[in-house]
Amino acid sequence: MRGYYRIFKALCFFAVLLPPTIVFKKLRFPGYKAWPHLVHRCLCSALNIQVRTYGTPLEGPPTLFVSNHVSWIDILVLGHVIKGCFVAKKEMIDWPILGYLSTLQRTIFINRERRSDIVEQRKEMQDRIHNGDNLILFPEGTTSDGGRVLSFKSSLFGVTENAMHLQPDEQGRIQELMVQPVTIVYKRINNMPTIRSSRPSVAWYGDLEMGPHLKGVLKLLKVEVEVHFHEPVSRSLFKTRKELSAYCERTIENRLLDSLRGK
User: Fold this and answer.
1) What does the pLDDT look like over 109-155, one tens digit per residue?
2) Taking Cα atoms as reference points, which of 192, 166, 189 lies closest to residue 62?
3) Burial (0-12, 13-18, 19+ Cβ within 10 Å), 34
4) Which of 76, 86, 95, 223 could form a cystine bridge with 99, CB 3.0-4.6 A?
5) Which domains does the chain have, with CATH numbers?
6) Sign, Cα dihedral of 209, 212, 216, 218
7) Which residues have a Cβ under 8 Å from the Cβ of 70 and sit 6 or more positions away?
8) Measured between alpha carbons, how far is 164 from 147 in angstroms, rounded to an integer?
9) Of 254, 232, 187, nearest to 52 (Cα)?
10) Which tens digit of pLDDT belongs to each residue from 227-250?
11) Full-model pTM
């Protein structure tokens, strides 16, 4: 019965929030970019996903938020605490519910299988940054089991190379692209600390199918997630995107492991 109640609650939120989201986006109503932020917050509430943040997301200059990736739940969690556009694999557009929501949030879909699309996709990301949008990137390129961080793909940081310097601000000062590492930690499930055997109930990785996994999440009593915002760094501090990628991976992984150890 818990699962049916969660579905009913989520549908109620959709009925109230989805129509204005569509209208605001179509008409480019002031503040329409932030509206999906409220939708994700309500969906976290419907699924009883409790989010605790440490540190704060950078506000001001356009920022590239870089995070580890554990589950489709990450979309709801980060969409709840960050006002920005996701950079996601093209397959996501076919996901039930989340795929449609991602289009409303102006997600940039990338096709990693076709090299001919890379230049165009990178330009779109750079244009978004120059127009003042924040981007949210999962550089692992896939999801993990939540107990570790997979190797980052430095190629996904290519968007930063031609966007290191942004449009001047109101005072005429040249802005630099900022990068903020973010660590997601699934801390507790059903009021118990997460362990290796319990992580698959929230982590969506490998060959797990979306439908059964979603049903399992709906049956959970509560999921507690930590989101750690690390110190933002300027892209210009790093000579290459590989250096930036390695720094972000190391920062995120250290916080994940420390948090899982209770530090």
Assistant:
1) 887 666 666 677 777 887 888 788 899 999 998 899 999 999 999 88
2) 166
3) exposed
4) 95
5) 2-260 (3.40.1130)
6) positive
7) 143, 144, 145, 146, 184, 186, 202, 203, 204, 205
8) 32
9) 187
10) 999 999 998 889 899 999 999 999
11) 0.85
